Amino acid sequence: MDKGLLIVYTGASGVGKGTVMKELLASNDNLRLSVSATTRAPRPGETNGVEYHFVTFERFEEMIKNNELLEHALYCDNYYGTPEKSVRDMLASGLDVMLEIEVEGYLQIKKLFPDCVTIFVLPPSLEELERRLSSRGTESPEVVRQRLNRAIEEMSYAPQFDYQVVNDDVKRTKDEILSIIADIKNERK
Ligand code: 5GP
Question: Ligand 1 center to residue 141 CA distance, Å?
């Protein structure tokens, strides 16, 4: 039986999930983010082993074959996946673990861990999402379009999640998620 809480944290690319996540980790000592593996290239400022484990397609396919991943998905032409061992170790030691993953990953995790808590982060509006995605300046206009289309598709899954949170302000959103986690931990004591 796992001691920690497994939290699936999903939302459109550009919705500000990463910024909220940094605040969450800084505010809650018992919370950890699972570092995923991906075949996408690092963005400027990203470090291997911190934001992601950046791996080749060959290595990723080997991880799939060896059952090293709890879940994986292809997102805008790149693989993303959750390494199993680190997540299980953290949960067993009582830490609460957040998986920042897209919808296909959520569907796989929900089957494996029916007791997980699922949170979907929404943008205040689609216009705002498009503005945030384009102004990040790290993706080509083609990739921005691809990610926006995927975001619209993904948002249709939001009602299936336990909680929907609108990221209109980073600190407010962080506080809302912290109180969701605290309430669930109280209920499950
Ligand atoms: P980005 O390239 O913007 O860092 O991530 C693209 C999408 O992949 C985001 O929706 C992010 O949440 C998702 N993602 C990141 N890591 C994983 C993972 O391990 N598994 C799955 N299924 N999705 C992931």
Answer: 19
Residue type, 111: K
Q: Name the fold adopted by 6-187.
A: Rossmann fold (3.40.50)
Closest CA to ligand 1's atom 18? 81
Q: Whose CA is nearest to atom 7 of ligand 1?
A: 102
Is the distance from the beta carbon of residue 35 to the nearest atom of ligand 1 less than 6 Å?
Answer: no
Token digits of residue 137? 């300046």
pLDDT of residue 115: 96
Which positions of the chain have pLDDT values less than 70? 1-2
Ligand 1 atom showing the smallest separation from residue 9 Cα: 12
The pLDDT of residue 1: 53
DSSP-derived pairing of the beta strands 36-38 and 117-122: unpaired
Q: For residues 3 and 115, what is the distance between their CA atoms, to the nearest angstrom? A: 12
Q: Is 168 helix (H, G, I), strand (E, B) or coil?
A: coil
- pLDDT tens, residue by residue, 52-73: 999 999 999 999 999 999 999 9
User: What are the φ and ψ backbone dihedral angles of 70, each rounded to 5 degrees?
Assistant: -75, -35
Residue nearest to atom 5 of ligand 1 (CA): 13
Starting at the edge strand that comes first in sequence, how are the strands of the sheet with 52-54 ordered?
52-54, 36-38, 78-83, 69-75
